[in-house]
Design a protein that fits this description.
Elements lengths: L2 E5 L9 H11 L10 E5 L2 E5 L9 H4 L5 E3 L5 E3 L9 H5 L6 E2 L5 E2 L9 H5 L5 E5 L3 H14 L3
Length: about 150
């Protein structure tokens, strides 16, 4: 079962620590522009967006330089030798989870080998590992809170 990073909107405070930790772990610098996860404000909610490991990822076939491949565990790998940073993958990602490095290569979460640094570092435990099958459970909880008030 493929797991990915899911952001609990009730807990995310938009601090950006996930971006800082990711850029440090992957690039050796504290620079959110070099992060593979992004903090986004949607209306009044903050979320952290990272690759959802789509079963049929639209980014892979859209890459004109064939720099993206999907492993059996769902992780999208970027061949930095082939990637020219054109951004087609970022354009077609339905989750806004692909970023382009300042040096023009795609940045896609690789789950840090199954133990994501951002999940461990999140001060509010807003980032959790879930499978696609588990997502509705969290969405139903959010909808019930909207309809019934805080549970």
């Amino acid at each position: 079962m493929v797991k990915f990073i899911f952001s609990d909107t009730d807990r995310c405070i938009g601090c950006g620590l996930c971006e800082i930790i990711c850029s440090w772990h992957k690039e050796g610098v504290f620079n959110p522009l070099k992060s593979r996860i992004r903090t986004v404000r949607l209306g009044f909610a903050d979320i952290a967006a990272a690759c959802r490991m789509c079963e049929e990822p639209p980014c892979v076939p859209q890459c004109p330089s064939r720099a993206l491949t999907q492993r059996e565990d769902g992780v999208i790998e970027v061949d930095e030798e082939k990637c020219d940073g054109c951004g087609w993958c970022a354009e077609v990602c339905p989750y806004g989870a692909i970023n382009i490095h300042p040096k023009k290569t795609a940045l896609i979460c690789d789950m840090c080998g199954g133990d994501p640094e951002c999940v461990k570092a999140c001060p509010t435990d807003a980032l959790i590992m879930v499978s696609q099958e588990e997502v509705p459970k969290y969405l139903r909880k959010d909808l019930m809170e909207i309809e019934l008030g805080e549970i």
